[in-house]
Amino acid sequence: MSVKIRLTRIGRHKDPIYRIVAADSRFARDGRIIEQIGTYDPKVGEEKAIIDEALALKWLGAGAIPSDSVRAMFSKKGIMAKFAESKKATK
Asked: Which residue among 4, 32, 36, 70 is least crowded, i.e. fewest CB within 10 A of its CB?
């Protein structure tokens, strides 16, 4: 099973809000998820995304692959740097 960390769309027509989720890559974008990691509102920007850092690091450590947009959010929040540091510490 290949797990991806990606966005799933919620919200009204022309007023999107996204959940950041860990999901099996074989399921649809808005289909079955494994766990919700956070939320993102594009009206307020990536810097204000609400992300549970512990869950994000757990899934990255388990081998989940973030999508390009999620990777950008994680980088702005410093989660990718912490993940890289934790990988260096375990070697």
From this structure: 32
